[in-house]
Specification:
341 residues, alpha/beta, six-stranded mixed β-sheet, five-stranded parallel β-sheet, 12 helices, elongated, disordered C terminus
Length: 341
Amino acid sequence: MAGTQELRGHRVVVAGAERAARHAVARYRALGADVTPAVAPSSLATLDPALRRASLVVAVDDGNPGWDILPALCRERRTLLVRERPAPDAGSVTLVGGGPGAADLVTVRGAEALTRADVVFYDRLGPYGTVAGLAPGAELVDVGKLPGHHKVPQLLIERLVVEAALAGKSVVRLKGGDPFVFGRGGEEVAACVAAGIPVTVVPGITSAVSVPGAAGIPVTHRGVSRMFTVASGHQPFSEAELEHLAGLGGTIVVLMGVGTLPQTAGGLLRHGLDPATPAAIVERGFSDTQRSTVARIDGLVVAAGLAGCASPAVVVIGDVVAVGADAAAELAGYAPAGARR
């Protein structure tokens, strides 16, 4: 992990053409190693003292057969040799779903994309606190958005991503959850395609399912709910949408819904949702300060106010909330509920 300086005091020789080896050079330097680049086989003679002192030699396959001498040299000097794939010559973009926040919930494919990145544009959601460790040596650009405040507008984010790729960089756009679940990933893919840039999407674990699960709430449960609906609460629902949600049945999951919770809860009740329907707000899923507030839907707004609920949070409405033992106990003989860890 960057910042831990795991290789401080170690000498590493990275063999490969400058552009092909750039990721390896940046990564080992970020890990604290004393890195010596060898950009052509002809430079090995002058680097012999460095090779003798090296703890590790990294051979990057740049297509030059002259590097074939490295295995013999490393055997002679009893130096560890590892091989790596080259960094791409042309720019590209990878949209990576960072999951609900914990670094170990990033997929293996997403983590691999981050290790190869020249630049990472990241949000405040997902594993933003550990992005430096996930992408050692990469340039990190915070383009995160807060409720009601977009310090970097979406169109500017798309322009920055495209410009970096056109400059030949390997770009990762790291987003919380999944890029295509209210993440505007489709817009960013369209911008890359329009600019003729290769773009890849790496799915992420969506908070719509994972965060309720972290609180012990399944979005579906045999005999309780066989469907769930995921909706964005960023803007208040229309009366038609509220009527549809109230009559659909199953579980309702609302992302970005704390600010519009009074309109959502009131509208669902107005359109016939049973006032005794269990509901929960799960804040800061998978963090050390994760917290759940549980109440009936007719008391959820009061409970949220008493608990001081704030985003990021996931709102879950439906009988599945009462499946967990803790929630069921809190809902029994309901009075406006407080919060629980």
